[in-house]
Amino acid sequence: MPTKYPQWPVIKYYDQEHLRRTALPLGGIGTGTVSLGGRGNLTDWEIVNRPAKGFQLQNSFFALYTKVGDGEPVMRALEGVIPPEDYEGARGAEVPNHGLPRFRQCVFEAAYPLGQVILNDTDVPLSVRLQAFNPLIPCDADASGIPVAIFRFILYNNTDQPVSAAIAGSLQNFIGADGTRGKAQGNFNTYREEDGLRGIYMQSNGLLADAEQFGTLALTTTAEHVTYRTAWANYNWGDSLLDFWDDFGGDGRLENREQDGVDAPMGSLAVNVDVPAQGEAAITFLLTWHFPNRMAWREAGVNHPQSGFQTDTYIGNYYATQYADAWQVAAKTAARLQVLEDDTVKFVQAFAEADLPDVVKESALFNVSTLRTQTVFRTADGNVFGWEGCDDTQGCCFGSCTHVWNYEQATAFLFGDLALKMREVEFLHATREDGGMSFRVELPLDKASQWSVAAADGQMGCIMKVYRDWQLAGDEEWLLKVWPMARRALEFCWRRGGWDADKDGVMEGCQHNTMDVEYYGPNPQMGIWYLGALRACEEMARHVGEKDFADECHALYANGREWIDAHLFNGEYYEHEIRPVRSNDDIFPMLIWDMGAKDVSNPVLQLGAGCLVDQLVGQYMAHVCGLGYVVDPEHARQTLQSIMKHNFKTGFYDHFNHLRSFVLNDESALVMATYPRGQRPARPFPYYNEVMTGFEYTAAVGMMYEGLDSDGLKCIEAVRERYDGRKRSPFDEAECGHHYARAMASWAAVLALTGFHYSAVDHSMAFKASDTPVTYFWSNGYAWGTCQQTPGDTGSAVELRVLHGSLRLHKLTLKGGGSVTFDDGRTIEAGDRLQCRVQKTG
Length: 842
Fold this sequence. Notes:
It is a single chain. By secondary structure, the chain is an alpha+beta fold. The protein has 17 helices and 36 strands. The strands form ten sheets. Strands 1-7-8-9-10-17-14-13-12 form a nine-stranded antiparallel beta sheet. Strands 30, 31, 32, 33, 34, 35 and 36 form a seven-stranded mixed beta sheet that branches. The chain has a five-stranded antiparallel beta sheet with strand order 6-5-11-16-15, covered by helices on one side. A hairpin with a 6-residue loop joins strand 2 (23-26) and strand 3. Helix 8 packs across helix 9 and helix 9 runs parallel beside helix 13. It starts with 11 loop residues before the first strand and ends with a strand.
């Protein structure tokens, strides 16, 4: 049906058989989220400073009233049917709101952050499209960090008669509870009308203002014809719901009730509208929240067990410094709602229409949702921190773990300012004077470097990220601020008992890493990270005028590359040469933790001769950074082909795994490590038989950088088939916890397939040349837009559009197709475009 309301882009469609696990997080960066379930239900209320999987609110839902002429009213919860898997419980169905009538047909359409639920029922005169989102605008972290979930219900009248309709939203005032601890006490609701906004404002008199669960809520609308309840009747035997349903079902309006001593009162807001025959109408609600009192790295109300510096440490929430309370969030958001939606849709539309495989768009965009979950938070000072992932009720593995966060690329290429802040935390706070970087950040920041272990891969990757983020930002002052500590972090490798104590460009020492153990001896995973860090430091040192250090870095890099290619490459892939040490006294104290081998002279938990899924992770990062090959290109290509040959597995019925299972039955995946040549250690590194999506993406992207696109796509397709809405949520790729940060490596597939690279240092931009007309999406963290190529006999016509931000450009290159230089440089502002012709070379 034609509609006057916005048509949102769609990347993935989920039918009624693929809704049970679908849960799209609605919320901003650092605000927490409530998830839109595939049926249109609201679930997982994770907005009170902590994860809360399975936290459901009583009687919180949207409902529809319809009436045609003098006929009987027809009412439905605005949700699809309950799946058969949820029919049975100790007392019958236990799904929230199970007793409400609901629509027979339901489908879900998604292009994150845009979620749409389409509801139909032959017994209901209206069909409904719910459009739900939270603003997501790359390069604008504040606009993308609003604690709001926006719901627009579009009502379609398929009959030849007008329909009187109403939608009521109901929300429990649960302030005081966070899904794990606390309870509502002394809560109260008030109705407010201000500046065209109407709604229920929820507060509490039962909490101290510094309590973790203290805050406010609001359910509001921009509509005019409103009735409301600030409380429901306090009846037993479920009659409170009965009273609400009867009241709303009488005429689509609500009459208020007395709170009558209820600590967690309900609030309801109803909007009436007439829908003309064969016409449509829309009603918009805003759900907003404001819970300012975040505490540092808390798990179930106590300190994280790995850390001793967080006792009752208030760190706050950045968003709470931007808004006074939940009502102000609603008021400010409503005032610019159209602009926020337009900019969000503009981004998603440009990305969705780009010439990329659908599964790449899906994996890249849907995993961006992790930035908005409780995995990530912004403290009151604006700094950004992250867990590795989230358990059901607490964060999992604290401290912005460097060796996990190294893999992800979404933050830097979508929100460059946030990436710079993360580097500042790593180098200006978490790195000691001797160059050792705590791979987990303690809070408050004056304790940031107190974690006693440095991770070899984590520290080297962070050095490469300094180079990447400086190139994207082009901020000379910022580089000079962090460079001294980045240099020390590299020099730390050369300490006695360190990673490269003999200073030959090869890591031989005790190397704690992302497998949560230490490797002993040269290996590709850490060794190639190190080569990348040497190259990054060489480039940065030359830029700041430290030629001697740059030359030293280059010499070490050249020697290390030659040795690794000569000694670790076995003709198929790179192996780990295990070299025990005599005793713990030969290991610099910061390099070993208690999760690895107990006997360092005969270490267990090693990789050894295995074919590791991410042995080329350092090369992956070098490509992302634009540093080129740090190992032999032919070896890199052969290694990735070997990973595909030996590690990709179709069907897991016969697969033995002694730890966690993220793949089962007839699914396909890249296994962490295989031993095609035998020689498997009796006790390999812990996760060798597992499957984890972040590592899979790293290998898949590496394949794409080598032109092995079909293999890379096969790997990504296998991942997303597992996260299909029926078996697992499409917006929750788990590893050690829900919404695992490493999975945001999926954004790098966009870079690999488009060939995108940008340097704000020399103002150069590059894309892969195409033999056919193509449109690419690009984002450098500070601006974003599209690049359209139209190839001809002698070259390509290029149209570069900036849709947001500002871009300075001196040189544009089509890799394999020539380049064009603008001697005076060009600045392209948002809404402008640059048209040029790139001549073929050779």
